[in-house]
Design goal:
Shape of chain A: globular
CATH class of chain B: Alpha Beta
Distance between the termini of chain A: 23 Å
Helix content of chain A: 25-40%
Strand content of chain B: 5-15%
CATH superfamily of chain A: Pyruvate-ferredoxin oxidoreductase, PFOR, domain III
Structural class of chain B: alpha/beta
CATH class of chain A: Alpha Beta
Largest sheet of chain A: 6 strands, mixed
CATH architecture of chain B: 3-Layer(aba) Sandwich
Number of helices of chain B: 11
Radius of gyration of chain B: 19 Å
Strand order of the largest sheet of chain B: 2-1-3-4-6-5-7-8
Strand content of chain A: 15-25%
Order of helices and strands of chain A: EHEEEEEHHHH
CATH architecture of chain A: 3-Layer(aba) Sandwich
Number of strands of chain B: 8
Shape of chain B: globular
Number of domains of chain A: 1
Distance between the termini of chain B: 13 Å
Number of domains of chain B: 1
Structural class of chain A: alpha/beta
Oligomer: heterotrimer
Number of strands of chain A: 6
Strand order of the largest sheet of chain A: 2-3-1-4-5-6
Largest sheet of chain B: 8 strands, mixed
Largest interface: B-C, 46 and 45 residues
CATH topology of chain B: Rossmann fold
């Protein structure tokens, strides 16, 4: 059984309990912060009191090459060490990968998808992902949010915040704390602002879909 | 600064007793450390055994006997430590053929980390271990300016393994891998590495060449270098009677001729610039030097090879010109 | 303090807590993050009385560590794959001289073909050099093993390699408990060398030894490793008492008490193996697993005790003895000398190929039915292999093999697992 959170439970103060392990896969290109996204995600989960494992799958460092990273979250120690082949959630940092790489391979029937795009799911040609209706699909203009706050096209932080809002698996406060741990103060605060905006946008999108 | 100069002639014995005590060599002191003690297994007339003893004794006096020595594989290492004996009177480590400079860097780093500020680290290797297989580590040590004095004892071939050619082997020399046969007998012209020049290109604090024929000069340079800090390199010319085919009794004479004909110039450099050189009072023709060594015998018999002799003379001439070695001070 | 950090950083923090005097660094994926983190700790002043040296090759790295250790300094370096091979001469030299250097191996495959991903071929290439080899299952264990390694190395005067899977562990963020300086100081006393280059008390180190004594010198190093067989568990116990957790030791058994099939493996794959064991147990298969932590010295007696009551043993290896099959299997087989059970070698994970729980479950199923070959290559793409063999049989100038295989496999970036 894949646990999902009801939106209300994602309110501040509520602590999410994982009935079984959650697996997340992040796709993007080198330079978009794919690996950092997974790392921040794992730190946020850790700060929430969970066990988390984040690791990359990449080749030699090269800007622009397709990159994947994974994150597992559980309330028991995580022993499994294999790429995530049946993700509960997929984040797509770069929509140009959409019809080149089989990004959604293994996505669970009730999985979540968050794509970095200013357009909606339908216009991206992804409606077929809806499956039997249990999946939750959303887009977020993460690059635009990133540029607005940190002046760089690095969509990872907004996407992480977006996923947190969509699923409730991470407390926003923990996401922000993870950001503050990683970046020097000035840059951290700009990223925090980006995260807050993205979180708010994702909440609105979620509510609109009901 | 002494006023009387002694020019060595004949039997080359200059009586140190004629010099004031403070100008005498370390070797003339009965109380010298004798760091490379007798009983080692070097060949009769070995220039390297001589050079190593001269150098380490000088370093020991200069440093107050606070030396650690790191030795590459080679003749010196092999003949000085025939299990279960050792002739070394200093702390001494032998690791591998190509890593003496790196091991010495490690020893020096340990002294810093452990706060032993007065200990001086000396690395030693033959030409093979220095100019060839040890070259990468040597350059690394130079580049980092590690606090090591590296002494290369250059007998111009891999002697320990049976006289094979190294990048220090001079043109035309016969070795086991550059035999004196065919149309171009001996080592190939136009090859070889000038490691002192390469050391200077790294702009390390001090580079010098020295010879077992000039004891004062060698001791002065080693003593001076010992007390400097940073990467230092001294390239010592050491005849090998066995490998060169010279008479064991001629070692110092052969070394002196190498200096006097210009093939092995004596000079020193600071930070990549030549700052001193030993002038040649009376130039000897290269043939005087070459004909004492069987490794060059094919240049003289059965037919005199004027072309190659001239080429070697040209090398010597170029050294003399570039370093302005002719004259007297 | 518990933190969520990258495995490399966890190791760097452990090294720093051990108060090293000399650290040598040469970059090679995937261990580079370790030495980068250490350089920051030294340069920022957080790690004091430590010299950090950027060397020009791995051969230099270990040689510098060697010299430092011989001069009485606690010395450390790290490498992987090609780098370990490049320093091979020095690896044997350090062991032969009895210098207690600690080195991390970020396990990576050896080329050709060039491959930056994880397998155990690098550590295996040096298994007989005389170093103690410890394999970490998790980043916590990687951290802990380095602390144990210094004490082990210095007690025995024997160098120690701590092996951790490249990328899988080095680049994974997971929860680790980083001990305090006081805790580590209580466990690891200052380095007291057995031999040291000291002007006040000169010794010669590194003499040539001929036929009259070489065998005895070698025997003594063998004897050291045999002593390590008791010292390693003892240190693990002491560690457990002082730090409050299990780490290290010779081997660890999981659900083996009544197991008919036991899977034996080294390193991080044990986590996935345990997941597969649990899943198969739920289906009623009596399976268990053993994780070997100390590969050198090889724990013959401990393995025999853990494995002898099973019906079959499956050795899962991330390495290959080309032309023979297993490497670890040889040791396991030796430990079971005289015991009648079935042994299977499974070569898996070479060059970073993922070992999945699914695959392992299928493997365990086949093994429990004794439907396995003696030597199996897990998840081998037989079609790819056959096609290449046919191609090579058809034409002499068939071109480079690796490139031909890659052409047929297609764009890798487009695939997930």
């Amino acid at each position: 059984m894949r646990p999902y959170v009801h939106r209300d439970a994602a309110k501040r103060g509520a602590h999410f309990a994982f009935a079984a392990m959650i697996e997340i896969r992040i796709h993007g290109r080198g330079g978009q912060g794919v690996v950092s996204c997974a790392e921040l995600m794992s730190v946020a989960a850790f700060l929430d009191g969970h066990h988390a494992q984040a690791f990359p799958s990449f080749g030699s460092e090269r800007m622009g090459a397709p990159v994947m990273a994974f994150c597992r979250i559980d309330d028991r120690p995580i022993r499994l060490r294999e790429p995530v082949v049946a993700p509960d959630a997929i984040i797509v940092c770069d929509p140009t990968l959409l019809h080149q790489v089989d990004l959604f391979s293994g996505l669970r029937p009730d999985g979540a998808v968050l794509v970095n795009a200013a357009r909606d799911i339908e216009s991206l040609g992804l409606s077929s992902l809806r499956g039997d209706g249990r999946r939750r699909l959303a887009t977020l203009p993460a690059s635009e949010v990133a540029v607005k706050h940190v002046q760089r096209v690095v969509p990872n932080v907004p996407l992480l915040a977006g996923l947190a809002a969509m699923t409730g698996w991470f407390e926003l406060d923990s996401v922000l704390a993870a950001i503050r741990q990683k970046f020097p103060p000035a840059i951290a605060e700009r990223n925090v602002a980006a995260a807050r905006e993205a979180y708010g946008m994702a909440r609105i999108t979620e509510q609109a879909h009901d | 600064m002494h006023e009387v100069k002694f020019y060595q002639t004949g039997t080359f014995t200059v009586g140190n007793r004629l010099l004031p005590p403070e100008l005498r060599t370390v070797q003339s002191e009965t109380g010298r450390s004798n760091s490379l003690n007798s009983g080692h297994r070097a060949c009769q007339g070995c220039g390297e055994a001589l050079g190593a003893r001269y150098a380490i004794d000088a370093a020991m006096r200069a440093s107050g006997r606070r030396i650690i020595a790191v030795n590459a594989t080679g003749c010196l290492e092999v003949f000085s430590t025939p299990y279960p004996e050792t002739s070394w009177q200093v702390p001494w480590i032998h690791s591998l053929f190509g890593n003496a400079a790196a091991v010495a860097s490690g020893v020096a780093a340990a002294q810093r980390a452990l706060g032993a500020t007065d200990v001086r680290v000396v690395a030693q290797g033959g030409d093979g271990g220095t100019t060839d297989i040890g070259f990468g580590c040597l350059s690394g040590m130079f580049e980092r300016n590690d606090d090591v004095l590296y002494l290369c004892y250059d007998n111009e071939a891999y002697m320990n393994t049976g006289v094979q050619r190294s990048s220090a082997t001079p043109p035309a020399a016969r070795t086991a891998t550059t035999p004196a046969v065919g149309r171009a007998p001996g080592n190939v012209f136009g090859t070889g590495k000038n490691v002192p020049a390469i050391a200077m290109a790294h702009r390390i604090p001090y580079v010098a060449t020295a010879s077992v024929a000039n004891l004062h000069d060698l001791e002065r340079k080693v003593a001076y270098a010992t007390m400097l800090h940073g990467a230092r390199y001294i390239h010592v010319h050491v005849p090998c009677p066995l490998g060169w085919g010279s008479a064991p009794a001629d070692t110092v004479k052969v070394a002196r001729l190498a200096v006097e004909c210009g093939l092995f110039p004596l000079y020193e450099a600071h930070d990549g610039q030549v700052t001193g050189r030993t002038l040649i009072r009376r130039r000897a023709p290269v043939s005087d030097y070459l004909k004492l060594q069987k490794r060059f015998a094919h240049l003289f018999a059965p037919v005199r090879d004027d072309e190659r002799l001239a080429a070697i003379q040209a090398i010597a001439d170029r050294n003399v010109t570039e370093l302005a070695l002719e004259g007297h001070d | 303090m518990t933190e969520q950090i990258e495995g490399s950083l966890a190791v760097a923090r452990a090294i720093a807590l051990c108060r090293p005097h000399v650290i040598c660094a040469y970059p090679i994926t995937p261990q580079t993050h370790i030495v980068e983190n250490l350089s920051e700790l030294v340069m920022s002043g957080a790690l004091r009385d430590c010299e950090f040296i950027n060397v020009e090759s791995e051969f230099a790295a270990l040689s510098v560590a060697l010299g430092a250790s011989a001069a009485g300094a606690r010395a450390y370096t790290a490498t992987s794959s090609q780098g370990l091979l490049f320093m091979a001469e020095a690896v044997y030299n350090v062991a032969g001289l009895g210098l207690p250097v600690v080195m991390t191996i970020g396990n990576r495959a050896i080329g050709a073909p060039i491959n930056i991903w994880n397998d155990h071929s690098d550590s295996m290439s040096m298994r007989d050099a005389g170093w103690i080899q410890l394999f970490a299952e998790t980043n916590q264990e990687a951290l802990d093993l380095h602390i144990q390694a210094f004490r082990l190395a210095e007690t025995l005067s024997c160098p120690v390699m701590v092996c951790m899977d490249g990328f899988i562990l080095t680049h994974a963020y997971e929860r680790v408990d980083v001990p305090t300086q006081a805790q580590v100081d209580a466990f690891l006393p200052p380095f007291e060398p057995r031999q040291v280059l000291d002007p006040a008390d000169p010794v010669t180190i590194g003499a040539m030894v001929g036929p009259e004594a070489f065998t005895e010198v070698r025997y003594l190093s063998h004897h050291k490793q045999l002593r390590a067989l008791s010292l390693i568990p003892h240190l693990a116990q002491t560690f457990h008492k002082m730090f409050g957790r299990e780490s290290g030791g010779l081997i660890r058994s999981y659900r083996t008490e009544d197991a008919e099939t036991i899977v034996v493996a080294l390193g991080s794959v044990n986590g996935t193996v345990q997941e597969a064991v649990d899943a198969m147990r739920e289906r009623g298969t009596r399976v268990g697993s053993v994780s070997i932590c100390s590969f050198r010295p090889f724990p013959l007696a401990a393995l025999r005790e853990a494995l002898q009551r099973a019906k079959r043993v499956v050795v899962l290896e991330k390495c290959l003895a080309v032309g023979l099959g297993g490497i670890v299997s040889d040791g396991v087989r030796k430990s079971l000398s005289g015991v009648a059970l079935k042994g299977y070698t499974v070569i898996a994970g070479l060059g970073g190929r993922a070992i999945t729980r699914e695959s392992l479950m299928r493997l365990i199923e086949d093994a429990s039915q004794d439907e396995l070959e003696q030597v199996t290559f897990l998840d081998l793409n037989a079609d790819l292999v056959c096609h290449e063999l046919e191609r090579e049989a058809a034409v002499r100038r068939s071109g480079p093999t690796a490139e031909a295989l890659l052409r047929r496999v297609g764009t890798v970036a487009a695939r997930i697992g």
